[in-house]
């Protein structure tokens, strides 16, 4: 296979992943990172990228893509009055700091650790969507500023290391603390930007000058992949939202749960097998 053909397949696959991420983001109200990161790791491995940086590059690039897609989603929710200014003030500052620290500290984590974090959290998110473990654990906590700020910091850090917008973690947390689903989803979409911007910046700094990072990357953020993914995600997120109104929410939730279980298991097995 010549270089031109190889590049066509690689970036064509990334563009399709962006389309899938956009549709799923629109369908399920989550960031596309949970789709983009696994797809990128597969494509990067096939292209011969250094295994030691593959997941770091995938996570960082996913966060960069979430900046424009998340901003678009947040503005749409804001226009519908679904973004809570009160929750933003409570959550955003702590998410920003935690997400940036995660991006910086990622440079100290091996590929194995990054895979385990993504895999374990993906499975926990899937299980929590079926069995409301988080709600049971948090229902005794007060709806206090301290509880919200602590939750924001933890979610910001974990989400940044996974390359996701955090909706799959922040929405159930907010609802467990007594907020409505609509308010939680709308506010979470805005908070995804507060995770993605500092998180991507942290990955830029921690990946600066690291051996094995591909050409045309700024730190760990790989711009060719960013462009290929962002175009598809931005264009097709509205398509996913339109489809969502025609499908059963229960079935969509089941599909996401199965997908997360498969992805999480694969990440863990990959980490264990070395």
TrEMBL record:
Superkingdom of this protein's organism:
Bacteria
Q: How does it sit in the membrane?
A: Multi-pass membrane protein
State whether keyword Membrane applies: yes
Give the matching Pfam families. Answer: TauE
Question: Where can this protein be found?
Answer: Cell membrane; Membrane
Cellular-component GO terms for this entry: plasma membrane
Q: Which sequence ranges are marked TM in the entry?
A: 12-40, 52-70, 90-109, 116-134, 154-177, 189-208, 220-244, 256-273
Principal localisation? membrane
Q: Which UniProt keywords apply?
A: Cell membrane, Membrane, Transmembrane, Transmembrane helix
Where does the record place a coiled coil? none
* Transmembrane helix among keywords: yes
- Xref: InterPro entries: TM_pro_TauE-like
Please give the family membership noted in the entry.
Belongs to the 4-toluene sulfonate uptake permease (TSUP) (TC 2.A.102) family.
Q: What is this protein called?
A: Probable membrane transporter protein
Species source reads: Maritalea myrionectae
């Amino acid at each position: 296979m010549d270089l031109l053909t190889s590049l066509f397949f690689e970036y064509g696959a990334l563009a399709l992943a962006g389309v899938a991420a956009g549709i799923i983001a629109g369908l399920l109200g989550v960031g596309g990172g949970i789709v983009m990161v696994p797809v990128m790791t597969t494509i990067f491995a096939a292209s011969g990228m250094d295994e030691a940086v593959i997941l770091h590059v995938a996570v960082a690039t996913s966060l960069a893509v979430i900046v424009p897609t998340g901003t678009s989603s947040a503005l749409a929710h804001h226009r519908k009055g679904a973004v809570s200014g009160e929750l933003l003030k409570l959550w955003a500052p702590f998410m920003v700091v935690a997400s940036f620290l995660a991006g910086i500290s990622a440079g100290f984590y091996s590929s194995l650790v990054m895979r385990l974090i993504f895999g374990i959290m993906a499975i926990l998110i899937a299980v929590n969507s079926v069995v409301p473990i988080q709600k049971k654990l948090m229902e005794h906590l007060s709806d206090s500023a301290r509880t919200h700020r602590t939750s924001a910091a933890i979610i910001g850090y974990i989400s940044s290391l996974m390359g996701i917008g955090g909706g799959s973690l922040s929405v159930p947390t907010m609802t467990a603390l007594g907020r409505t689903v609509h308010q939680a989803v709308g506010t979470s979409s805005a908070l995804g930007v507060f995770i993605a911007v500092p998180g991507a910046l942290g990955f830029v700094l921690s990946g600066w000058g690291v051996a094995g990072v591909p050409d045309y990357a700024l730190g760990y953020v790989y711009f060719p992949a960013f462009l290929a993914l962002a175009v598809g995600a931005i264009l097709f997120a509205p398509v996913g939202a339109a489809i969502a109104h025609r499908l059963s929410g229960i079935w969509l939730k089941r599909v996401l749960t199965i997908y997360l279980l498969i992805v999480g298991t694969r990440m863990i097995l990959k980490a264990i097998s070395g």
